[in-house]
């Protein structure tokens, strides 16, 4: 029993096997009817070991929806406690151009979350006229009562995404798309954490310093922040792990790769321009896989090392309207190979919305709070830097 108990508990570092052996020994000494006590203790102990063994083979769910609800509640409390100091609610301008039903749905979800935590949304539903979109973005950007401007992507085909996004300055950026924000991220000068969130993370010394110096000035892209925040809140270690990120978009793949790198993982970034066989081989060695490839059910259990953590950023809308991620969820769950997995929907999506709200509050805090204005000089723009 001791041998089995020792091996199992050594395999599961989070359990204290010495305590359990100690408790069995203590029970044996203190009870007079030793034979019966020992038999009962041994039986109970073997039973609990069996259950722990079975549990260790199960894949557990990284529940993004439940975690996002907790984050939104924290943000709601923050907004309600600071509203009197600020003199108004944080305000988010949202531009939706064209008639993509999926984008409309995303905007509705963002509106609902904003309403819950006390952020006012100013929604503009526009058609495909580029000039009009430009004008409306500039109006929102120049409005001092608006803390953040979100241009829902993708824009209609005839509208230049680069041109429209370039109209949103860094201080009104809530997506983290602005070159200044992405630059600060690349230079490791942005934290995914608020100072009080440190308890959730096994953070790198460098990030600890960034938090302590209150260099919480720039905006981290929402999806990347969602991935790291979810791993942090489930106490999943990133440092020292072999991680693979699939996808290189500036919305998801690139910032996720940078953040995982800054957190000290041994990171490989791939996209499907490399052969699928090669990408699969790299994944088979990974401790953590984050897939933002946008390829329905690409990853099955044959791609996975036992115990891998799978974070599925993919959100693929299939014919008929159903959605699935980049991971073949049912097959992977049946195989039991992964230790943790995010579902789609209900994984990274809700966390991304929560991080958008967090970014909006971050901008409002900078804009509205006198005490923060003292400790954070106003966000510098590229013009201020005289580049
Ligand atoms: N479309 C899909 N994801 C996003 C996002 O994170 N931000 C914006 N603005 N548009 C999106």
Protein model, in words:
The chain is α/β, with parallel strands linked by helices. It is built from 15 helices and 11 strands. The chain has helices spanning 2-11, 17-30, 34-57, 64-86, 101-117, 130-142, 161-165, 179-186, 205-212, 222-233, 253-262, 276-283, 329-335, 348-368, 370-375; strands spanning 60-61, 91-97, 120-126, 148-151, 242-246, 266-270, 288-291, 308-312, 316-317, 323-324, 338-341. The strands form 3 sheets. Strands 1-11-8-7-5-6 form a 6-stranded parallel β-sheet, with helices on both faces. Helix 5 links the parallel strand 2 and strand 3 (120-126). Helix 4 runs parallel beside helix 14 (348-368), helix 5 (101-117) packs across helix 14 (348-368) and helix 10 (222-233) packs across helix 14. The longest helix has 24 residues, at 34-57. The structure holds guanine.
Keywords, separated by commas or semicolons:
3-stranded parallel sheet; 387 residues; 6-stranded parallel sheet; single chain; 48% helix; binds guanine; 11 strands; alpha/beta; 15 helices
